[in-house]
Amino acid sequence: MFSTRIPENLMATVKKKKIRTNPRKKPTQDRAQATVDALMQATAHILAQEGYDRASTNRIAQAAGVSIGSLYQYFPSKEALVAALVERMLDEECAMLEPRLKDAVGAKLETLVRELIGLMIANYA
């Protein structure tokens, strides 16, 4: 994966300012899903390359090759894009770990911990 360089105090800032982090709507057509996917990839790229503070909705839309209006159809803010990206990454992590955890039911704790650590290292290497 990648380092997103998201500030540790981001969630406190979002809660304090009451910034909306939920997506406005979910894509229903393939074309709309492709737009959201491009926005997620652009968000990840900008966060990894430039950091959270330099990311903006305009930069993300430009990097994704979509209009700012298209971005705002799905995400009300930069924080909503980051929240969606984090959620997507967590979903991917869970999808990767779940089958392995099912296979490890009944294993010793030491074996389970070693397996999880190995999977996480492989995923982030």
Unreliable stretches:
none
- Main pleated-sheet profile: none
Beta-strand segment tally: 0
User: Which structural class matches the secondary elements?
Assistant: mainly alpha
Q: How confident overall, as mean pLDDT?
A: 83
Head-to-tail CA distance between termini: 7 Å
Q: In percent, how much strand structure appears in the residues?
A: under 5%
- Count of helical regions: 6
General form = elongated
Order of helices and strands: HHHHHH
Structural commentary:
With 125 residues, this protein is an all-alpha fold. Helices cover 69% and strands 0% of the residues. The protein contains six helices and no strands. The chain has helices at residues 10-17, 30-50, 57-64, 68-74, 78-103, 109-124. α2 (30-50) packs across α3 (57-64) and α5 (78-103) packs across α6 (109-124). The radius of gyration is 17 Å and the shape is elongated. It starts with 9 loop residues before the first helix and ends with a helix. The relative contact order is 0.14. The model has no long low-confidence stretch (mean pLDDT 83).
